[in-house]
Amino acid sequence: MGELPPLREIIARHGLSASKALGQNFLLDEQLLDRIAAIPGDLNGKQVLEIGPGPGGLTRALLRAGARVTAIEMDTRCLPALAELGETYPGKLRVVHGDALKLHHGELMGSEPFAILSNLPYNVGTALFVRWLGGEDWPPLWTSLTLMFQQEVAQRIVAQPNTSAYGRLAVLAQWRGYAKLAMKVHRSAFTPPPKVMSAVVHVEPVAMPESVSARTLERLTEAAFGQRRKMLRQSLKGMSGAVETMAELGIDPQRRAETLTVAEFVELARELS
Q1: Nearest Cα residue to 236 out of 215, 257, 250
Q2: Angle between helix 262-272 and 242-249 (nearest 10)
Q3: Which of 15, 38, 86, 273 lies 20 to 30 Å (CA to CA) from residue 64?
Q4: Are 182 and 201 in contact (CB under 8 A)?
């Protein structure tokens, strides 16, 4: 395996700059990238999916850890830098040029389990996260999600009831997954530095509660938190049978969405399923 030049040199040589339109911020600190790659545990020989690798900072760390990486990148400017990286690690890196929101990740990765690690582009991060946690098929083929978000979004994913950060993302992440905030990352670590702090969230799937439809839970949380200042009898009145079912379960319809635990949302979704 050849020696890789520093990331800054690669970026300068290929004339790369982070695109605001694509939500890019490049992470260049190799030690920090190695720490992120270590969060899910031993990746040697394992399959990894990375979204938006950019010039390949995290990709390098994953390859150093022995992973076999499939990277989806829609920015054509970054493809030559990634091709160069692939030459240094022959047979270990597959780059797919395309939009991660439009591709079927399961089909792309095949039947072998895979970890997902990404410094997610800010403009698609939440949509991808909701998609990975959604759907009726469970457990998923992915073994863990290790994802960089804006710190505010990361805190919403791991939030507990009765806090301002608690909402739809927390319920979707925690009803059939174990979510933790693994690491905070200072804005100065990025080029260019974003206006906000970032954090890495790590999610591992756990057994899915029985007889609950994921779609029902998604609709329920969408309605409940769509008007979070209102009482549930107001926000859920458009959802057939929801208010009556709450009364049957002993959940006071005068409560607000942020006071319900994940277990209470799951119980309500089970009855409505």
Answers
A1: 257
A2: 120
A3: 15
A4: yes
Q: Going by DSSP bridges, is the β-strand pair 198-205/47-51 parallel, antiparallel, or unpaired?
A: unpaired
Q: Which domain holds residue 125?
A: 7-205
pLDDT tens readout for residues 107-165: 999 999 999 999 887 778 999 999 999 999 999 999 999 999 999 999 999 999 999 99
Same domain, 155 and 255: no
- For 66, phi then psi, to 5°, come to 95, 10
With a pLDDT cut of 70, the percent of the chain lying above it is 96
pLDDT (tens digit per residue) in 191-248: 778 888 999 999 999 999 999 999 999 999 999 999 889 999 999 999 999 999 999 9
pLDDT of residue 13: 85
Q: Are 268 and 220 in contact, with CB atoms under 8 Å apart? A: yes
- Using pLDDT thresholds of 50, 70 and 90, give the confidence band for residue 6: confident
The CATH number that applies at residue 219 is 1.10.8.100
- Rounded (10°) CA dihedral 19, 22, 25, 28: -80
Q: How far is CA 21 from CA 46, 122, 124, in A?
A: 32, 10, 11
User: Could you tell me if 131 and 185 lie in one domain?
Assistant: yes
Residue 55 · residue 10 · CB < 8 Å: yes
Same-domain pairing of 85 and 219: no
